[in-house]
Amino acid sequence: MRPIASAFAATLRDMLPIIVTIGLFQALVLGRWPEDALMLAGGSVAALIGLTLLVRGLESSLFPVGEALADAMARRGHPLWLMGFAFALGFGGAVAEPALAAVASQAARAMVADPAFPADDAQLSALALKIRLGVSASLGLALVLGVWRILKGWPVAALALPGYWVLAIVATASDAPFVAVALDAGTAATSAINIPLMLALGIGLSSVLRGRNALADGFGIVALASLAPMLLFLATAFMLVDGP
Amino acid sequence: MMEFIAREAMRTGFDLAPILVVIGFFALRFLPPDKALRKRALTGAAYIAIGLTLFRVGLETALLPLAGSIARDLAADIVESGGAAQAMALIGFAVAMGATAALIEPTMAATADRVRDLTGGSVRPMVLRLAVATGFGLGLGFGGMRLVYGLPLGAVVAPLVGVMTVLALVAPKRLTPLALDSGAIATSVVTVPIIAVFGVAVAETLPGRSPLADGFGMIVLAMIGSSVSVLLIATLVDRFPARRPGSRKDEGDGE
């Protein structure tokens, strides 16, 4: 692992383009400078330190632990344990995610914005909770499917592309507000913490299995994990709207 | 300010706690007691907790308000003069913001380093990250265009999915899964809040747009855009290896 000073330098290099972009649009296009320069500088320094620590933490902890676990379970555990781990990782990583809670309540509101489906606040938050649990479960199932796919050696494109076709067809056929919400919800349940673990699960598993390659077979779980919530949101919305 | 930092720390806690429980349970069951790994894992978890909290504090005090106010002003320019130049400025900002934000996405940076190790250096981290960032920016540009001109979401999503399908068929097999994943990997702690701020700011400022109906639908475009871009670059590099100077290919090119 590189020394911390050069890690900070690398982060600073990564952050330069976004700082330049904001500076250019502020100065050239809008012709003004922001007030609160001190606050902005403080925030940028906090972001720089935070980003450096975060990348280092992901690389030094989540990746190796996740891969070691997947490796040990593939060698010594029953496949059911592996599936259980995949489901727990997907469900547990999503159910408490604040971003998912926020999107679930926005989605509930977008669904009931339909005049044919009026609702009060209690119904709205009950719906949001159901969406949250449903999305978390769908994420767990997506991870189980992702692990199953690696065990079987199925290509990920054969699973992910049809999912995208469904999204494209629904988005073309319907312009209801909840369709856009649903399509953006794919990322609500995946975070900086559970994505590295999903990758580590796939990489660790396919490194240990005979005839699997970490690059060609290990990736793909995250794609399934982001499609699952989108499809679940759409299915929920259509069931609610078309239902009695 | 302290209250705000405490709130961000709590959010990080909510992110981290369930995962730690799951990992802890399965690690106790399956991993041999390895002091070095345990120490590394706990130090890393502390890095993540502190890093994520500090980063979100920085994001909310600096990056998000700036991006929001620029987007609002650019949209206000469109309302005032309504020219093509003003629309181009806003769409250009969406492209630049998307690309540069994807470049600092920590999940993507960590993944790119892991991919370098897995491929023995033949997929260079910066090439992968730039490919993702380009696609991310262009996808967000389509989202901005949709917002300005009021295009239906399907009119943008369907062609992009079509292109993705064709590219997935011709791209090198070993890179397709990584390409399909990279869109989702790049939409995380930096990019999602920035896109949300941009979408809401523009939708609130432009007349006849509602944040609820029109502010959404940008993340999915950025996601698909990144995957398309990685697929495209993987295909090009694979078909025309000589075009990348200094490339070290790990497979024979059949020459």
Describe the structure.
The complex is a heterodimer of chains A (244) and B (255). With 244 residues, chain A is mainly alpha-helical. Helix content of chain A is 79%, strand content 0%. Chain A has nine helices and no strands. Chain A has helices at residues 4-29, 37-76, 79-95, 98-112, 121-152, 156-173, 177-184, 194-208, 221-242. The longest helix of chain A is centred in the N-terminal third of the chain and has 40 residues, at 37-76. In chain A, 50% of the residues are buried. Chain B is an all-alpha fold. Helix content of chain B is 80%, strand content 0%. In chain B, helix 3 packs antiparallel against helix 5, helix 5 packs across helix 10 (219-239) and helix 6 (153-170) packs parallel to helix 10. In chain B, 53% of the residues are buried. At the A-B interface, helix 1, helix 2, helix 3, helix 4 and helix 6 of A face helix 1, helix 2, helix 3, helix 4 and helix 6 of B.
